[in-house]
């Protein structure tokens, strides 16, 4: 099944001692684990920076500071047998 929607998302890069914080996911079709920085979907009318703050609060109940925009990445992928297309706003931040 194909998804014909481009999804805007935001992710945060949180680094310490040459490591970054990531969430683990699992693709049951491929039978493979993957890792990506934490974040989530940008809602209509919501700025990407605001989304990152909200997502971090929701996912790990933490507050973030020193938020700086790094850039935008376009991501085409397959997950659980479905094609996906994301526009990813990438920020660096601290807890």
Structure description:
It is a single chain. With 95 residues, the protein is mainly beta. The protein has one helix and eight strands, in the order E-E-E-E-E-E-H-E-E. The chain has one helix at 48-60; strands at 2-13, 15-16, 19-20, 23-27, 32-36, 39-41, 65-79, 82-94. The strands form three sheets. A four-stranded mixed β-sheet has the order 6-1-8-7. A hairpin with a 2-residue loop joins strand 7 (65-79) and strand 8 (82-94). The mean pLDDT is 95.
Strand content: over 45%
Tally of helical segments: 1
Spatial separation of the terminal alpha carbons: 39 Å
Mean pLDDT: 95
* Number of distinct beta strands: 8
Report the radius of gyration as a whole number of Å: 14 Å
Kindly report the oligomeric state of this protein. Answer: single chain
Q: Strands of the biggest beta sheet: in what spatial order?
A: 6-1-8-7
**Sheet of most strands:** 4 strands, mixed
Helix content: 10-25%
Poorly predicted runs are none
Shape summary: globular
Structural class: mainly beta
> What is the succession of H and E elements?
EEEEEEHEE
Question: Which characteristics define this entry?
Answer:
two-stranded antiparallel sheet, 4-stranded mixed beta sheet, 8 strands, 95 residues, globular
In short:
This protein is mainly β. It has one helix at 48-60, and strands at 2-13, 15-16, 19-20, 23-27, 32-36, 39-41, 65-79, 82-94. The mean pLDDT is 95.
